[in-house]
Amino acid sequence: MSPMARTAPVPAATDPAIIRNFCIIAHIDHGKSTLADRMLQLTGVVEQRDMKAQYLDRMDIERERGITIKSQAVRLPWELDGVSYALNMIDTPGHVDFTYEVSRSLAACEGAILLVDAAQGIEAQTLANLYLAMENDLTIIPVLNKIDLPAAQPEKYAAELANLIGGNPEDVLLVSGKTGVGVEALLDKIVRDLPSPVGDANAPARAMIFDSVYDTYRGVVTYVRVVDGHLSPRERIQMMSTRASHELLEIGVSSPEPTPSKGLGVGEVGYLITGVKDVRQSKVGDTVTNLAKPAAASLSGYADAKPMVFSGLYPLDGADYPVLRDALEKLMLNDAALIYEPETSAALGFGFRVGFLGLLHLEITRERLEREYNLSLISTAPNVEYEVTLEDKNVVHVTNPSEYPVGKIAAVREPMVSATILAPNEFVGAIMELCQSRRGVMGGMDYLSEDRVEIRYRLPLAEIVFDFFDILKSRTRGYGSLDWKADGDQVADLVKVDIMLQGEQVDAFSAITHRDKAYAYGVMMTGKLRELIPRQQFEVPIQAAIGSRIIARESIRAIRKDVLAKCYGGDITRKRKLLEKQKEGKKRMKMVGRVEVPQEAFIAALSSDESKDKAKK
Amino acid sequence: MPSTLPLGEPAPADGRLPPSAVAGSRDRAFGLYVHIPFCAVRCGYCDFNTYTAAELGGGASQASYALTVERELEFAGGALAQSGIAQRALSTVFFGGGTPTLLPSQDLSRVLQTAKNVWGLEPGAEVTTEANPDSVTPESLAELARAGFTRVSFGMQSAVPHVLAVLDRTHAPERVPLAVEWARAAGLKVSLDLIYGTPGEELSDWESSLEAALTLEPDHLSAYALIIEDGTALARRIRRGEVPMVDDDDHADKYEIAENMLRGAGMSWYEVSNWARTGEDQCRHNLAYWKGHDWWGAGPGAHSHMGGTRWWNVKHPAAYAQRLDTGASPAAGREILDETARYVEDVLLRSRLAEGYLVAGLQPEGRHAVAGLIADGLIEPADAFKGVVRLSGRGRLLADAVVRRLLPN
Q: Which residue spans adopt a coiled-coil conformation according to this UniProt entry (chain A) (predicted)?
C-alpha cells in the first residue's frame, strides 16, 4: 500500500517523467465523482473535514442531476516506491451533448480510467467516449466500481470489458468509491501503467485549452495542458485561432483550490487567468502560445462548437424579457456552445431562439435560467437546422418552423446522426421498431456479451431531439442507453404543419415533419390542445394545416357556466379570495388572439405522451 | 366538518370598530343575521357551520343557545355604541343555519325580542327564518308570526325522492305543501330554496321540482347549483365513484330551465340565484349582502360587515359560548378593507344584481371592458346604452368571468 506523498513535486519544475495525466470515462451515475472525491481524500489534497460530497461538481444542478457539466483538473501528489509523482486528474463531462469537450479533455491525457458500474455494465455514451480515448491512443485502465453493491456482478462485467478492450478479465480493477476499497491500488496502477507525457521543453510554448470557465471574481479561468515549452506569469500569451493576445495575470494548478505557481512546464496541467470576461476568447481546443516566441503550428483537433438543436425561449411574463436577455448574456460568458438571437412569436411575444449542443444542454440551460434568474419560461419544441433550397437556387437555413419558406421549394436537407444504442438483447425488437418508426436505417448490430447488444442506426437528428431518448428508456425499462454523433445530411420530403386556434396560427405549435407523418402530427396536436386548453367564453376551433390545406380539426366548446351561486353565509372575504385566485390563474395564461392558453398547455403539448407516462410512474 | 374561516388580523376583545367603519354609518341600512348552528342530521353536501347533537358533545347545548346569542346581541349593542356607530333600528333580521326551527319557536322569539330591545325594528322590517319543512307545525309558525317574523324560507331542495336521498334530506316531499299552507295561514311570506345539479338528477327531475315549487305559488324562490365542497361526505362519495360527478353544462342547462319556468310563472330574477314575484317580495336581507350594507352576524362562525370592516366569529359553539361567558367579543378575526378591496367587492357583489352596476362607477379598465361584454352577449345592450352593466341570461351563467373582465388585472 502506498503512503501519501511526503513531498509533492513543485509545479513549473516537475520532470515530465513523474507526471501522469489521466481522466475518468464513466456513465452518469456510475460513480465517477465519488471515486474522484475518494482520490482527493487519499492523496491528502482535501482534508477529511473539508469534504463535501462530489467536490468537483460545483454547480448545484450538476450535483442534483449527478452529472458533470464542466470539467476541471486537479493535481494530486502520490508516492510509489519512494518516488513522489504528480497525478493530474482531468474531470470530463459525462454526457453525449458534450462530445467535443470530452475529446479535448481526452487529448490532454495519456491515460484513461474506464469506470463502469459493477451492477450495470457499460453504457453507450461510455462506449463512445472509450472509442474517442482509444482514437487518442490513451492507455486504458478498466475499473469496475460499486463492488460493494449487493447487485454487483464483477465477473460478468469484467468479462464484458475484457472482451471490448482486449486483455484478461483478471486485469480489471475492482473498487468502491464509496468505501474506498481498491482506490489506493488504482492510484498505484496509474503511476505504473500510464506513460509519462512527452514534449519539447525548449520549443516555443504550446498548450491546449481543454476547458474554460467564467468566474465572477476572476473572469475567465482557462484550463490548459502544456505540450511543449513553458508558460510563465506576466508574459504575454496568444490564442492561436484568433491571434488575440493577453497578459498572463496568474498561472497555477488546482489542488483542488487554485494555487499560483511559477509557471507550467511540459506535460503539466493547470489554469491561466488573463482577465478576459468571455469564455469565447478562450475556446476549448485552441492552442495557447507565447506572443514573443510563437509556435509555428497550432495543436491539431480544434473545432468550433456547433449547435445542433434550436428552441425558442420565452418569458411567461413578457415584462421579464430584459431579465432573460441579461441572464443569457451571463450564461454565455461561461458556455461557449450557447448561441442565441432575439426572436418574436405571435403567440409567445418576445423571446430568443437559442442553439444548443443537444437536448440535455437545452434542459440544463433552461433549468439554470429558471433557478438562478428566477424566470418562468416557455420553451418551444426543439428543432434542428434545415437547409432549404428554393427554386431560384437560393439557400436558406431554417432553425424555426415559422421561418420555413412558403412554396417554391426545390429541396430540403436535414441533418443526420449515427446513433449507437446499447441494451439487453430482449429489447432488440422494441428498439428496432422505434428506430424504424423514426426513419432510421440500421447500420449493424453486435453482441457485447451474451445478453447485451450494440445496435447502430443512421437517423435524422430531428427524429431523436424531441422524445426519442425518453421513449427508448421506457421501452427498454430503463436499460437502454444512447450515444449519437453528427453524420452529414440527407434530402427529405418535409413539410411544415401549422396549428391554428380560432383561425390564428400559433407558431409555437408549428412543426416541420416528414410528409408521411404530417397527418399524425396534426391529429395528435389538435387532440392534445383540445384536452389542454380550458373552455373559453366562445367556441374555439383548432386546426392543423399544410399551407392552406386543413389536415385535422377539433373544437373546444364554449364554456357555459362560470359563476358561484352561493355567498357562503355572508363570507364575502372568501368570495373575494376566490376571485383573486381566479385572477392569479389568469395571469398564468398566454393570450393567443382572444384564447387564453395556460402555460401547462404549452409544456404538455410540446412533450411526448410516452415520456409523460413515465414521469407519472 | 364545517368550512374554514378566512385568515385575517386579530379582532379586538372589546369588539371596537375602526373609525373607517364609523364614517357614514348614519346613512347606511343595518341588519342582523342570527346563526343557528344545529341540525338533526348533517346533509352530505353541506359545509356550513352546523352540528348535530352527536357532533356537538357537551359544553354547548341547544337548550342554552338562545341565552348565549342574546348575550352576543347585548354585547353588540355596547360595542357599536362605544365605537361611535350610529344607533339605527334594524331593517332586516334573518335567522339562518343550520336549522333554526330545530330550536323551540319560543327561543327564536326571545332572541328577536332581545334584538328589538337592543336596536329596535324599523316599521315594515323584514324578519325571516329558514326552516325545514319537517321541523314546523301550524302552531310553531303562528307563534313566530306573533313574535314579529314576516317571512319563512323553506329548504325544499327538490321534489324528487331519489334526489333528496342523495342530498340526505330527511323530509318527505309531500310535507312541503303542508308547511307552506300553515305559513300562509300564519300570515308569513313564503320562500322556497331549491338545489339543482345533484348527482343523478335528470333534467326532467329538475323540471318536476320547479313545477312542484311553482304550484305552491311562493313569493320568492332561490335556486342554487349544488357545489361539491371539499371535505363533505358527498365529495367523498363522488371520489369513490359511488355517485356520478356533475358537470357545469348540466348546471347551465338547469339554470336556463329554471329561468324559463320561473319567468313563465311571473317571477323575475333580482340576483343570479334569486327570483321574486314582485319587487316587494325580494329578500331585502339577501340584497343587503350584495349591496355591501351593514349587518351584525351573531352566532358561531357568523360573518359581520360594518362600513368596510368584516369580521367573523369563532366557529365552535362551545368556544363561542365561552368567549361570551367572559364578556369578550366572539370574533376570531377581522379584515379592514382598503379602497382597492372595497371596489373589488362592490363590483363583485353588485354586478350580480338585476339592477346592475353603474358604468360611471367603474374604473377605466372596467369601462373599457363594457363594449367587449356586449359583443360577447354577456350583458344587456339596451341597459349598457343607458349606463348600466346588467347581466344577460348567458352573462348570469358566466358572472364570475364578467367580474374578472370588469376588474383591473
A: none
Report, as an integer, the average pLDDT of A208-219.
84
pLDDT at A211: 86
Residues of B whose CB is below 8 A from A539: none
What residue in A sits closest to B247 (Cα-Cα)? A561
Residue A466 has pLDDT above 80, yes or no: no
Q: What CATH number corresponds to the domain at position B55?
A: 3.20.20.70
Residues of chain B with C-beta less than 8 angstroms from the C-beta of A566: 224, 227, 273
pLDDT at A591: 81
The answer to whether B292 and B279 have CB atoms below 8 angstroms apart is: no
Confidence of residue A62 (pLDDT cuts 50, 70, 90): very low
A344 interfacial to chain B (CB closer than 8 Å): no
ipTM above 0.90, yes or no: no
Burial A414-439 (b: 16+ CB within 10 A, else e): bbbbbbbbbbeeebeebbbebbeebb
Residues B116 and B253 in one domain: yes
- Mark which residues 262-321 of B lie under 8 Å from A by CB: 272-273, 289-290, 295, 297, 301-305, 310, 312
**CB-based contact B269:B396 (threshold 8 Å):** yes
Shortest Cα distance from A28 to chain B (angstroms)?
Answer: 42
Residues in chain B closer than 8 A to A537 (CB atoms): 376, 378, 398, 401
Q: Using CA of residue A370, residue A373, residue A376, residue A380, what is the dihedral sign? A: negative
Question: Is A234's Cβ below 8 Å from some Cβ in B?
Answer: no
Decide which of A589 and A375 is more confident: A375
Q: How many domains does chain B have?
A: 2
CB pair distance less than 8 Å for A569 and B35: yes
Domains and CATH numbers, chain A: 16-193 (3.40.50.300), 206-290 (2.40.30.10), 309-380 (3.30.70.870), 387-492 (3.30.70.240), 496-616 (3.30.70.2570)
User: Does residue B312 lie in a domain region?
Assistant: no
Kindly state whether residue B317 falls inside one of the protein's structural domains. no
Boundaries of domain holding B65: 19-291
- The answer to whether A34 is a known ligand-binding residue is yes
How far from each other are the two terminal CA atoms of chain B, in whole angstroms? 34
